[in-house]
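Aim 2 progress update. The chain analyzed this quarter is reproduced below.
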Amino acid sequence: MSHPDAMIWNDRYTKDARWRNLQSPRNLLTTHQDLLPRNGLVLDAACGTTPTGLHLARQGWQVIALDVSNAALRIVQSEVQKEALPVSFALMDLENPWLPSNRFDVVLNFYFLSRPLLSTYRRSIKRGGLLFFETFVRDESYSPETDGNPHHYLEPQELKHAFADWNIIHYEETQRISHSMHRSKSRRIVQMVARKLE
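Predicted structure tokens:
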């Protein structure tokens, strides 16, 4: 895939071991895992090496893992094959994707932002299904020179407003130390767990 984001992420996963190493599942999911039904279909969007998806697959969930980076998906495929886990992969640009309606019991979206996906998630999650969302929020310390594309940041309260008609189980905007390749910086993040109403 010649998508510019694919080239950037393929380069990272190919050249930097920090991106290749499978990580622990996201805390937002593990601290709210009691909300999940016993089984179902999980979509892990912009999954990278899908540590959270693997965590759920090991417990019997079917996981569809989507990412723009074929390098990331190749890394995790060997892990899935070794353990015979119920994970399917698709190489996809998630900037404005099509997803089937009323299909997923759980959607995971960690540190990826494409605003068209917000309405796509609203359609593609089943009634009673859950959305786990965590990403950056723009605040007064944001600088395009050091923080990159402003379209990769939500505005304060934007996510809550986008899902105001859902049952928002957990919502928090807070400061976190973010570690990049060259520096550490305090950044504002948002976490949300929301259930689509019956």
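The mean pLDDT is 84. The beta strands are 41-45, 62-67, 87-91, 104-110, 125-137, 167-179, 184-195. These observations will guide the mutagenesis experiments scheduled for the next reporting period.
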